[in-house]
Amino acid sequence: MEISTKEFKHCDMLMLKGRIDSATAPQFSQALDAITESGRFKIVVDMSQLEYMSSAGFRALLATQRACKRYNRGEVVLASVPARIQEALELAGFTELFKTFDEPLAAVGNF
Amino acid sequence: MRKVKYPAQFQYLDEIREFVAEVARKGGFGEKEIYSIQLAADEAASNIIEHAYAGVKNGSLEVSCGMQGDVITIILRDQGRPFNPNSVQPPNLKADLSDRQIGGLGIYLMRKLMDDVRYETSSRGNSLTLIKRRN
After folding, report:
1. What architecture (CATH level 2) is domain B2-133?
2. Alpha helices in A1-110 (DSSP H)
3. Which ipTM was obtained for this model?
4. Hey, of A20, A21, A71, which one would you mutate to test binding to chain B, going by the most B CBs within 10 A of its CB?
5. Which residues does residue B44 pair with via DSSP β-bridges, in sequence order?
6. pLDDT, tens digit (0-9, with 9 covering 90-100), for B71-128
7. Does B105 touch chain A (CB under 8 A)?
8. For B97, which of A55, A65, A87 is closest by C-beta distance?
9. Is any Cβ of chain B less than 8 angstroms from the Cβ of A3?
10. Partner A contacted by B106 (CB < 8 A)
């Protein structure tokens, strides 16, 4: 799994590549924590190159969404979610907890 | 049934997913169903590594997988502490963000993605059987 980050004026974007499971989710959590610990709480997660995500990744998203939405200081939004991952997120009841955008730049523009 | 023994470590989840996907693909499952089977096997194995082998470094996880007609069967066997996923309460998927349960989600997904999930424990160890019929 590879993670790259990009800082925009109003938000941060995480680009995920590969697979997130229990082995790689800690790396994903660390990348999310690095953003929130720097006092930034508006995060776009670009999933266009993500092939797979298990519940370990969902948990990292949930924990960060809680941190970001506290005091209404921001939120995590998802962009370009592959169909299979979207179906699993729906099954987990996560789609109502995260705004999703077809394109990463539309998600950036949301902030 | 093909049988492979893995160290009970998260780094082997990739190989477990590949193993069950290969059997499912040969068995005629479509890509969407193969993803579901991989996810269910991953959640099952992750759960065993995390709970049955909590604090254990050198545990092993044996995965058997095979087709019978249009049905795939995956059996995960471990020698860890008994942990019956069927005894775990499903998470409340309607709860607000602040009340969402972080635990139990993987087990819930595994049960939703497969047609049947059976758990057995004996002096020889624990076995978890996942079953799914091809559409």
Report:
1. 2-Layer Sandwich (3.30)
2. 25-37, 55-69, 83-91, 104-109
3. 0.95
4. A21
5. none
6. 999 999 999 999 888 888 888 988 989 888 877 899 999 999 999 999 999 999 999 9
7. yes
8. A65
9. no
10. yes
